[in-house]
Design goal:
8 helices; mainly alpha; 0% strand; 176 residues
Length: 176
Amino acid sequence: MRRASDKYLFNLALASIFASLTAAGAQISIQLGPVPFTLQVLIIFLAGYLLKPRWAFLSLTIYLILGAIGIPVFANFSSGVGHLVGPTGGYLVAFPVSAYLISKLRRFNKILAGVVGLGVIYTLGWLVLGMHLGNFHKAFKVGVVPFIGFDALKLFIAIYISAFVDKRLTLREVEE
């Protein structure tokens, strides 16, 4: 049996790995409008499906802190607090909450958990983008609608990957 400090360090390492994966996913980016297409949501789904709720939340919080303090982890190797309060800030700020909710709800239904998590990202992202654009209808058209199909695909890919990982590793069984 692992000591408490070993369990804590193991979980912290996993959270850090998912923060790094989120940063890597942000760099696979296609800018078609005010909100870039990235692989971040795929990593958020995976963090939620594979980590305990608090560690899923922490992994995305680490990612946001790194970007806020100037480490270029956001899309297109960008950084700064301006991203958290700018037009796409709502999406970013929703990431930890989304991962937490996905992790909490996954035992009931992984698809539902992913949809709820994605709903949080879309809602906060749409609201902040709408405030910046001064037009919530336009914000929905450019900040939500174009992403639905691609994000649905990411959801099913994440479910498949997490099932594969669950059969081979015991990431969630390590508790503090």
